[in-house]
Amino acid sequence: MSTQSAVPIATRVDAVTNPVPPTLLTSGKELAAFRRALLRWYDQNRRNLPWRKNQDPYRIWLSEIMLQQTRVGAVLDHYRIFLEQFPNVRALAAASEDAVLAAWSGLGYYRRARMLHRCAKEIVQQHSGDFPQQAKDLQTLPGIGRYTSAAIASIAFAQPVAVVDGNVERVLQRFIDVNLTSPQIWKQAQALLFSSRPGDFNQAMMELGAMVCVPREPRCLVCPVRKWCATAQSSKAASRAVTSAIRMERRASSPGKMPAPLTMCQIKRELWCMMNQRNGDIRLVLRSKKVALMPGMWELPQSSEPPRPWPTVAHWRTFRHSVTITDYTVHVLLNMPLVNAPLAHQGKWIAIERIPQIPITGLTRKILRAGGII
How many other CB atoms sit within 10 Å of the CB of residue 5? Predict the structure, then answer.
């Protein structure tokens, strides 16, 4: 493996004490070769994802919001169903918040859906339904930060602005083998950007991090740009890559905040849920709009203590469910008599046919699907 064109290898140090060079490559010729190699790999290997089929800013924006802290596999069906219900920004702006939350149900982090709805309204009301084309203008919209604005501007409008997500940050940290600060990372990403194909280049960098330069076991042997990567040239590449990956994952999990601990203890709790039905209705409870987690969502009546007395014949199934750092063991009780069953008196009767139109929690959706109710 040739090292002539690689960045000189040195012990990893803080970039504040060891200033980063203007670009990550040794010459303009090498930079051009790097860009060609990356884009050639991307053109041949990119995943066939639905939001890559066109340059519609609405669809790109929707995908970027859905993909925040959510796996691609978990987004695909939600993305399709959401677009069927809200095919454009005007349809989304005209919808009720409950309808938006209902369509979002199951993706979690419901604040994203509320901000998405608010942003759609602002685009229609203040921009005549057209997305601003410049990243700086997109950042003025609700729920759109530096990364999302750069993604929309570059992919939808071919604006020459780089994006940095967790994948890109990991690639750049390994590529130069220096602990870059956040401003330095964005600067280096911009220096690498191929302005003739900014959207494809940005997606290629993200795809490289997602498919090849992965967190714990990077696939260096199949990396299309390994000849320019300082870490790949290092004899300590494997161990250093793991250390870098852990650091990157911590940053990506809490953007703009102090890094989280390397390990986080999950909290374990038990829940008892009541699933009562009658004449095509089901008993649901509306969560307060003042609570921090899933405000304004409907759910089955639940308690952290089992109802007493608890006839064993009422127990139907036990589920495992996680919300942020809490792992729940959920016991579902079926059609307990109202007498001596305080849970059953919570909430109100909701027609089962209405459930697709109201926002329900992910746990409630899981239980109702398992019961064949929805």
Answer: 14
What is the full DSSP assignment across 225-283?
TGGG-HHHHSTTHHHHHHHHHHHHHHHHHSTTSPPPPSS-PPEEEEEEEEE-EETTEEE
Above 50 in pLDDT, residue 349?
A: yes
Cα distance between residue 132 and residue 343, in whole Å: 50
Which three-class secondary structure string do you get for 106-175? CCCCCHHHHHHHHHHHHHHHHHCCCCCCCHHHHCCCCCCCHHHHHHHHHHHHCCCCCCCCHHHHHHHHHH
Torsion of CA 87, 88, 89, 91, to 10 degrees: -60
**CA–CA separation, 94 vs 59, rounded Å?**
17
Q: What is the pLDDT of residues 252-281, one digit of tens each?
A: 544 443 333 334 456 788 888 888 888 889
- Whole-angstrom CA distances from 33 to 27, 90, 96, 228, 259 are 10, 43, 50, 10, 35
Q: 192-230, pLDDT tens digit by residue? A: 999 999 999 999 999 999 999 998 888 888 999 998 988
Give the largest Cα separation in the chain, rounded: 81
Please list the active-site residues: 64
Whole-prediction pTM: 0.67
Q: Does residue 198 have a cis peptide bond before it, meaning omega lies within 30 degrees of 0?
A: no
